[in-house]
Amino acid sequence: MRNYASPQQAPVRVHYRPRITPHASRHCTKMATPQRIKALDQNVVNKIAAGEIIVAPVNALKELIENSVDAGSTSIEIVVKDGGLKLLQITDNGSGINRDDLPILCERFTTSKLKAFEDLTSIGTYGFRGEALASISMIAHLTVTTKTKDSNTAWKAVYADGKLAPPKPGQSADPKPCAGRQGTQITVQDLFYNTPSRRRAFRSTSDEYLKILDVVGRYAVHCEGVAFSCRKQGDGGVGLSTTSTANVVERIRRIHGSAVANEVVEFSVSNKALGFKAKGMLSNANYHVKKTTLLLFINGRSVESSAIKKAIDATYLTFLPKGGHPFVYLSIEIEPDRVDVNVHPTKREVNFLHEDEIIEKIAEAIQEQLAAVDTSRSYTLTQTVLPGTQPQSVVASRVGQGRQQKDANPSFKPPTTKKTYENNTVRVDHRDQKITSMLLPAVRDPGGVGGGAETTEYEYDDGREWEEVTYSTVKTLRKAVRESAHSGLAELFLGHIYVGLVDAHKRLAAVQHGVKLYLVDYAAVCYEMFYQIGLSDFRNFGQIRFNPPLSLRELLQIAADEEQESRNAQTGGATPAGRPSKPGRSDDGGEDGGGSRDDDDVVMGDSDTPLDLHSNSHDEGFNWEGATQIVENTLRKHRVMLRDYFSLEINDDGELVSLPLLLKGYMPSLGKLPAFLLRLGPNVVWNSEMECFQTFLRELALFYVPEPILPNSEEKEKELAVILETVIFRAFRKRLVPTTELLAGNTVTEIANLKGLYRIFERSC
To answer: What is residue 552's predicted lDDT score, i.e. its pLDDT?
Structure first.
C-alpha cells in the first residue's frame, strides 16, 4: 500500500490526452460522409435467415417432426448425439420425396404445401414456407435418404448451403441410388459448425437433450396413430417411446408417468359463432406440481400462449392448494381463415380472431369440468367419530391394505397418520346445504317511485338468446378486471360459508373460511360484482319491464325535488341522507359520504356543454326544471344505444319501459330509480365509447347495491338476510372476480381465528 503522508511522496498528477491513431483518424473521416447502401451476398442473407429459424437443435427437430407428420408417417424414430449438436437423425415411414424434387429440396421457399399467398388463409399443414431444410443446410452437414412407394430404389443426397453437394471431393453431387425402406431419413451433423459463437452458447448438451425429449413428448401425446421413439446414439435404452395404437391416456402415462395419467379427465368445448373446437385432458384436484405443464396445440401445431396459460392457472386457482399447478393437454381447432400462422420465425406463436372470447369459453369449460369431478377429490381423514376411535370401515380397509402390502413386502411398515389438532379442524363445508337455503325469498316492491307506483306491475324477461360480443372496448374492460384479480380473495369468496347478517344499516355480514371468521362489507362487494356482471352480460341482459311504463320526466322531477330539498337542508358539509353515494365504509365503520365521481354534479347537455349543479344549485335562481330537461334530452338522445346494449328501453313518448336485470331472483330498490336516472346525465361520459360503457355500468352497479336498512325494521332485515344468503352471496361464488380494489377500505376484515381463540382459552384456563 502506498503512503502519501509526507509531501515528498505525494502523487504526481498526469493529464492524459488520448492519442488519435492514423487508423482512427481515417475511420472518423469516413463516418463523416454517408456510406453507400449495398445488397448483401445471398449466402449471407441465407445464413442470417437460418439463424432466426434454427435457434437451437430442438428447433431443427421440431421442423423435421412436422415434415414427417405432414408426410403421413405412422412411425418416427429419432437418434441424438451431444444434445443434437453433433448428430440429429430422424427416420419416418411417410410418403417419401420424389427423385426429381431432390435438386431443389433445400432451396429457400420451395414447398409442396403452398402455391399462392391466399393459400395461407386455408393452410392445413405444419410446414408452408419451405425454409426449414434450407436453413439447416446453411449451418450443418445435411444428408437426405428417401424412397417413395413407386420407386424401386432409395436415393441419397448431400446438401451444403442449400444446394446439392458431393459426398466426397471429386465425386458427383447428383443423388445416388442406395438401399432403403419407404419413407425419409434426414441426418443433420455438426450443427452450427460455421457459426462458432452460436455453437459456444450451448454449454450443456444434457439440457439440449431434455429440450428435445420435451418437444418429442408433446407431439407423441398429440399425434394419434403415430409411434415415436427417441434415444441417444450408442445407448441401449430408449429415452422416450410410444406405440401407434395407444390412446391419449396411455401416451400421457408413457411420457409423463402414472401419477398424471391416473388423475386426468377428458373435456371438450366448441362454439360455431367463434369457429373453434377444443378438446384435451386435464388433471383433477388430486394432482398438482410446482410448475404448470401445458401441452398446447392450435390446429395441430405446438405453440405457446401466455394468455391461455394465465387463464388456465387462474381457473385452477380455486381447486388446487396454494403453490399447486396443473397438467393440461389442450388441442384447439380453429377455422384456418381465422388463424395467422405466419407471425413467428420458428412458428412458436400464432394469432387468431376472437382470442379473448375463445380463451374465456375454454376457461369456463375447464371450470365446469373441474367442478363436476371435484367430488372425486381424495381427502385425508382428520376427524374421528369419538376421541381415540375410528369408523369400522376405515379401520378394516387399512388393516386389509396393510396385510396385502406386508405379504408382498415383509419389511413393509404401515404408514402413520399425522395427528390433526383441534385448532386446525374445519368442521363445515360450503357445499353442504343448509335448511335456510330452502327458503326462497319473496320478491316485493323495495320502494315506491312516486305517483302511480301502487298500480305498476313488473315483468321479468330472462329468456334471451345469448349473443357474442366482439367490441374491443368491452374486451379491454374485461381484461382489466382479470388482470386485477386477487388470488387470496378469490379463494375466500369461492369457499366461504355464509354465517349471517351482522348490521343491515352498515351493510355488514359475517362469513367463515377455513378456521377464520371475516366481516364483509357486502355493499362494496356487490358494487364490484354487479359491475362485472354488466361487463360479462353486455348486450345480453334480462329485462324488468314496467306495465304501464313510467314517465321519465316525472321520475327525473322527483329526483330533482329530493336533491333540492336535501341541499337546502344540508348543514356543515354533511352528506344528505337521500343522496346516493358509492358503497364503502369509513374508518369509524359508518357510511362513506363520497360520491362515485368527483364531478357527479355536472350534467352534459345535447351540445356536450357541462352544467355544474354543485356550484349553482344553492343559488335561488337555479333552474332545476331546465337541468332535468337536459338530462331527459340526453337519455332520449341515446335511447337506441341504451336499449341495444343495456336493455334500458325508453319509448317515443319519453316513458321508461324496462330496466336491465342483472341477477335473477334479486330486485333492486326502486326507491333509488329516480336518483339513478338523474345521475346518468352527469356521471356517464357519453362522447367516449369505453368511458361511456364503464361509467354507465358503474352507475348501474350502484343502483343495484342493497340499500342500508334503518334500525328497528325487523321485517325488512329478515327479508334482506334471506336474499343475502340465498341469492347474493351465492352469486359471489359464481360471478365475482375479486379484485385488489376490494382490499382497500376494510371491505374484508378478519375478526376471529380459531387458533387465536384456543390461545385465549388456554390462558384463561
So the answer is: 92
| 255 contact partners, CB below 8 Å, separation of at least 6 | 217, 220, 221, 240, 242
DSSP assignment of 427-494 equals: ---TTSPPGGGGSPPPP---S--STTGGG-EEEEE--PPP-----HHHHHHHHHHHHTB-HHHHHHHH
Interhelix angle for 248-256 vs 205-222, to 10°? 170
Mean pLDDT, rounded, for 453-478: 70
Q: Tell me: cis bond preceding 706? Omega within 30 of 0 counts.
A: no
Q: Do the beta carbons of residue 98 and residue 252 sit within 8 Å?
A: no
For residues 405 and 416, give the distance between their C-alpha atoms in angstroms, rounded to a whole number: 15
Percent of the chain residues past pLDDT 70, beyond the cut: 69
Whole-angstrom Cα distance, residue 12 to residue 4?
Answer: 11
CA-wise closest residue to 136 among 165, 159, 169, 109: 159
Burial track 584-599 (b if 16+ CB lie within 10 A, e otherwise): bbeeeeebbeebbbee
Q: How far apart are the first and last CA of the chain?
A: 70
Which residues, in sequence order, are CB contacts of 48 under 8 Å at separation 6+? 40
Taking the complete model, does pTM exceed 0.70, yes or no? no
For 200, counting Cβ atoms within 10 Å of its Cβ (0-12 exposed, 13-18 middle, 19+ buried), the class is: exposed
